[in-house]
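Morning. Coffee machine broken again, so started the prediction first thing and wrote up yesterday's gels while waiting. Chain of 192 residues, entered below exactly as on the submission form.
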Amino acid sequence: MSPKSDRLRLAATALVACIQASATDQRPTLINDSCRFITKTLQFMELVAALDVPVEARKTPRSHGKRATTAGFREDINLTVRSRWEANVARYLNWLQAKGEIKKWLYEPQRWFFPEIKSGVTSYLPDFWIENPDDTTYWLEVKGWWDARSKTAVKRFRKYYPEEELKIIDGVAYKKLEKELKDVILNWELSK
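Came back before lunch.
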């Protein structure tokens, strides 16, 4: 085990002890659930640390059978993303912000719930929120692969929140961006 995982274990153990010490008779289930969650999280962290694989090199295979996407933390944008496409779009948004073409942007800042839907796709989490210099805003979804859940989520978002503008960067739009910007924007990750 690495010194980092030793520190994590010590911190988690102290946190569990603190929670147990502050437990009251009013909420024993909540305290026990919290301790179980921390213990499971610690076990997972120890497993990952034992693999000794840098975060940026871990692959997250997608269920749709396409190539695995590289999910993880990117130092240059100080962000954990789900794919290299999202990382590159974040770099693109930073570039637009530096040029004054957008005021600011956020990554996955809000989950939208569909109140009348009780099963299946009950919410949607757009990839980016963008604010323009004129204070107008819109949402941006980076989507290289459209499965049924993705299509349903976008359709329901547009139905339940028609006042919110949603733009999509699909495979065609992304490839066009990549062709134009891969040599312009620093640290652009090329598609394999």
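Residues 69-181 form a domain with the Trna Endonuclease; Chain: A, domain 1 fold (CATH 3.40.1350.10). Going to sketch it on the whiteboard this afternoon.
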